[in-house]
Amino acid sequence: MKNNYGRFKIIVLISLILLLSVITWKATAANAPNFLDNQNAQQEVTGVVTGPQGLPIAGVAVFIKGETKGTVTNVNGEYTIRATQGDTLVFTYLGFKPVEVILEQASTLNIQMEEDVASLGEVEINAGYYNTTRRESTGNISRVTAEEIELQPVISPLQALQGRMAGVEIDQSAGVSGLASSIIIRGRNSLRFQGDYPLFIIDGVPVNSSPISSIGPFTRGAGIDPLNALNMSNIESIEVLKDADATAIYGSRGANGVVLITTRKGSDIGGKTTFEVQGYSGFSEVSNKMKLMNTSQYISVREKAFENDGVVPSEINAPDLVLWDQNRYTDWQEVLLGGTASIKDFNVAVTGGDENTSFLVGGSFHNEGAVFPGNFGYKKMTANINLNHNSKSQRFQMVFSANYGLDNNDLFYGTNYVNLALTLSPNAPALYNDDGTLNWEDGTWTNPFAGLYKPQEIKTSTLLSNLSLSYEMLDGLKLKANMGYSNLGSEEEVRNLKDAYNPRTWDRLILSSNNSTTQRTSWIIEPQILYNRNFGSLELDALAGATFQNSENNMLSLEGLGFSDDRLVGNLGAADEVRVNLNEDVVYRYAAVFGRLGFNWSRKYFLNLTGRRDGSSRFGRDKRFASFWALGTAWIFSEEEYFKNNIPFLSFGKIRGSYGTTGSDQIPDYGYLDTYEATPGPGGLYPTQLTNPDYSWEVNRKLEAALQLGFNQDKINLEVSWYRNRSSNQLVGYPLSAITGFTSVQANLPALIQNKGWEIVLSSINVQTKNFSWETSLNATFPSNKLLEFDDLNLTPYRETYKVGYPLDISLRYKYDGIDPETGLYRIADVNNDGRFDINDRVSINRLGRKYYGGISNILSFRNLDLGVLFEYVRQERPTYLAEMSNSPGRFGNNSTDILDAWRQEGDATNVQRLSQSIPSLLAYYNVLNSDLFIGDASFLRLKTLELSYNLPATWLTGFGIERLNLFVHGQNLLTITNYKGLDPQGGKVVPPLRTITSGVQINF
Predict the structure, then answer these.
(1) Rg (CA), the chain
(2) What's this model's pTM, rounded to 2 decimal places?
(3) Whole-angstrom distance, CA of residue 706 vs CA of residue 139
(4) 306-335: pLDDT as tens digits
(5) Which of 172, 190, 603, 830 is the most exposed place for a label (fewest CB within 10 A)?
(6) CB under 8 Å to 956, separation ≥6 — which residues?
(7) Spatial separation of the C-alpha atoms in residues 895 and 424, rounded to whole Å
(8) Which domains, and CATH codes, for the chain?
(9) Residue among 831, 832, 834, 798 nearest 815 (CA)
(10) How far does CA 887 lie from the centroid of its chain?
């Protein structure tokens, strides 16, 4: 059956390509005579397009009215086009009034364009299967462009979006290169943390957005970002689809939002080939260090703890007080995290073409060091190509794109490495012996550099390719086929070398390695029919299509034991024993039909209907298919005569709304089947999962209403959106009694999750003169997440995690009850007075998620000098820095200087218990770790990006063959204003996001 299905895929693909190729050949041949005849009457027209101040404008579209062929101006405003005398040339550019000129005898035509602020709303945005404009969109779509993000010194495009979009939470929880950032669009919709990933589509190809699993201590929590292979300088725009109208056409895949990434395309620049070279270099460093005790403070705290306990320090219980140098001081934060990581990035792109064919070829190299000691870092190389071709009749179009990336991440298996930087005794021994070997100080400590001898290497390769073919059979009727293929391969290796261990254990040491590979492959075919026609004042835009998608995920994890030498570690052929810890081959298939009907009347009234019928291999035969739909509508009331005549300062006004359903199948594959796992020995197989063919899709019902206003010729724009999403039929593991032999079975639980909130987006042109301009944009989100219903919650294990009527991101904790006046130890409340602490005593409900968040940016331009500033702000609570220390006050290991204010006698006003290392003090500390005492304010205002650039005047470049030269300086995470006392309000126990400064140059020639 599988072989027949594979043959069917190949036959369908070949048939589509052959059919469209024949149609293209016939269309081209039929138009060849006309094309040759017209050549005699055409002439080459050249010129320069400038703005009001006489400066050249790059990117102006120049085309012949009534025809689709045309060109765009280069960076000097120059253009070349072939036209016939009497043709009308049209010049259009965002922010300027269009110009139409009838071509006469002259072969040179220079144009000066006038600004038109009101046209800014006409920018085209990607809505997935179709394009729209911000003015006419019925859905909620946020967008950032290359100009905003291309120069940021980041690896993944998600990192560039922080603070730029309303309703989009992006959390970069670690400053380790290559790690995945989390993204949540309009709140959590699922009880499963893995069930909130949005759909990522790159040039029409869906990409598995889940992080690649990893075993290292730095990478285990976040995983590896599958988007790392993208070249940031090759991204044209990123759109995020949020409401039902925008996402329902993606059906089950759009339940958690859709992220559309569009890469750059080639352009016709009068047949001229242009080159763009960009490079920057700089450095990164940890932006903040905690205030820890110095040696004298530490010694006094430790001695006081022994005094309070009535215990005499000895070589066994206090090597720091008896054996180690009492005057030695080491700033372990500086030693372990205080390095400077160098950054280098180089990018080149070549673009060109003619009226029918354009291309873009590019590549990049990125290299980052690490703030850790040793030779660690991240390297990435990418290559990309884009090819666009139109037949001479302009009826056939082909678009091909491919992006390939290789990255190599060198880290180490430094368990609790960051925690050591915070808790190592300031008088700890020297790192190295006189002979250069690691110092273990006769086994009295664990050398923090031991982890450096457990190197971790992660290699990833990614290929994303897309082929789009379309043919306009009749005016307004177009056939289209979108085909894509993606392949991601990842290899990870951790080697445990001899020097990572105390030499006293070498005689019984077993050298080992851990090796794992992940392979993700996917293909997709989407045939479509598009129809567009005007019926007087009514315009109809229709779309129908189908999706066939196949994905395979292969995972293999091996462990090698018993290597005889460091140089052989990792070579499994040299291991005494090889264990297979995981070997999985998973296939996922997805099919759908979808459609859209868009109506607009007089460009004032808009109605958008979308529907999709999905089928997923993750459900049983009777539950495999589900339908999803949405309705979106908009009214541009500013086009009504009443508003035009009575409210002159209102340049634009629109009311829009949407309602619809999306679904989710983000669960493990084969969840409805009985499954078995192979095991060594005579048993062969043993069961791992019970069957349940009756569970079905999650359903997310989305409702939205929004108001968009523009004032003073759209110099001030305001958009206010209200949304409410309700996700039901939750797909989770239903707990079972242990006597069944299984802990859970996949099922739908009767839980209803609601996300609602307000989004505000404001932009303004504050000043605009001949030499100076100032623009501001602001976004703010006020979310509310709540578990509305969960029948019999108290009968499930989720009773320890969630509460009906509260958000999903709560933490159920003990109630802190102050310092015991008799013992001086932490005290928590025994709410039910049963003499023990359990879930019934966790009555303090603390929300750890974002209460509100947003960003504000300003762009100031003075002649050729531009300054861009972006601040990100977040209001939130999270575990405090004291929870990060994992160290009870007075016990072995450093701590915050706050513990110098520890309790000494009854009446002391402090929240730090008595200095002690006794068992009761340790138990009290561990209890209070789970109380509301260690939940605090982690809000912050961060200067996310600061960019200064200067374009050299064109007159300076004359004679050098250079069209544009831009010098820039960029800063990332330069300043954080927060009351949080730990390393970083986002970073937690791992390396926080780094402060980065780079400088570079862009050259076009």
Answers:
(1) 32
(2) 0.86
(3) 9
(4) 999 999 999 999 999 999 999 999 999 999
(5) 603
(6) none
(7) 9
(8) 2-119 (2.60.40.1120), 124-263 (2.170.130.10)
(9) 831
(10) 34
